[in-house]
Amino acid sequence: MAKLGSLIFISKLVLLLNFAVTTLANDPNDFQAFYYIQQLKPIEKMLQTEWPSFTCPQIGRKFWLHEWNKHGTCSKSVLDEMSYFHTALNLKNKINIFQALAKAKIQPNNQFYSLDSINTAITRATGFRPSIFCNHDAQGNSQIWQVIHCVDKSGVKLINCSSTPNNQGGCSSTIKFPSYN
């Protein structure tokens, strides 16, 4: 995804992927999962509001555990769990992807937009190239799933994401921006 040593910040736009993470932390004897989930308790309400899983809101802690295991552990030498989540939320609040897309007349309205126009709108707003990932709806249409911004090791400074292999994260040249309401 990003260069080695970089923290990856993910701004979940619309998650319509059936998560395999629902199986994470189901075993009460899984101490590591329990530990990380306990670490999030002080900021759980904030995470529910600021960083929800649009696909499966009821998985909450398991979703954030997945985010830490998948992305946060890359920055473990610099950011502990709480610092990772606070840093990610601070960056999310600085980067208003919905506003950047709306300014380019790109809305979550089940319409199709060019991948280039989405990339351009976000790059213009942030000054940095994101990585965009797609999944497919029931009809097989490519739809926006994740927008990833890369940051330096400190988690403070945005950097350009390196090119995403496999045609920009599974996206076709025209992608659907599904409504999430």
Automatic annotation (TrEMBL):
<dbReference type="GO" id="GO:0006401">
    <property type="term" value="P:RNA catabolic process"/>
</dbReference>
<dbReference type="GO" id="GO:0033897">
    <property type="term" value="F:ribonuclease T2 activity"/>
</dbReference>
<keyword id="KW-0540">Nuclease</keyword>
<comment type="similarity">
    <text>Belongs to the RNase T2 family.</text>
</comment>
<keyword id="KW-0255">Endonuclease</keyword>
<dbReference type="GO" id="GO:0005576">
    <property type="term" value="C:extracellular region"/>
</dbReference>
<keyword id="KW-0378">Hydrolase</keyword>
<feature type="signal peptide">
    <location>
        <begin position="1"/>
        <end position="25"/>
    </location>
</feature>
<dbReference type="Pfam" id="PF00445">
    <property type="entry name" value="Ribonuclease_T2"/>
</dbReference>
<keyword id="KW-0456">Lyase</keyword>
<dbReference type="InterPro" id="IPR001568">
    <property type="entry name" value="RNase_T2-like"/>
</dbReference>
<dbReference type="GO" id="GO:0016787">
    <property type="term" value="F:hydrolase activity"/>
</dbReference>
<dbReference type="InterPro" id="IPR036430">
    <property type="entry name" value="RNase_T2-like_sf"/>
</dbReference>
<dbReference type="GO" id="GO:0003723">
    <property type="term" value="F:RNA binding"/>
</dbReference>
<dbReference type="InterPro" id="IPR033130">
    <property type="entry name" value="RNase_T2_His_AS_2"/>
</dbReference>
<keyword id="KW-0732">Signal</keyword>
<protein>
    <submittedName>
        <fullName>Uncharacterized protein</fullName>
    </submittedName>
</protein>
